[in-house]
Amino acid sequence: MTSHTSLVRIWRWPSLLATLSVFGLFSALLGQSGVWLPLSWIALSAPLVVAAICISRGRG
Question: SS3 string of 20-45?
């Protein structure tokens, strides 16, 4: 496995969760009503759900 492939494999999920968190923060900040509020809740709770699943499986 090349170093580029291993870096992509390692950083894929943390990058996705960070992007989702930033989207959730911006949507909570900029959109206080309508569809933005539920989207911000979903986006900000997704990393917590992933962390809880990983901890419960013994990966954390």
Answer: HHHHHHHHHHHCCCCCHHHHHHHHHH
For residues 31 and 43, is the Cβ–Cβ distance under 8 A? no
Please list the helix, strand and coil fractions of the chain in percent, rounded to the nearest 5, in that order: 85, 0, 15
- Both tokens assigned to 24: 């959730």
**pLDDT score, position 18:** 95
Q: Is 59 a residue whose pLDDT tops 90?
A: no
38 burial level (CB within 10 Å; 0-12, 13-18, 19+)? exposed
Q: Which two tokens stand for residue 36?
A: 């933005």
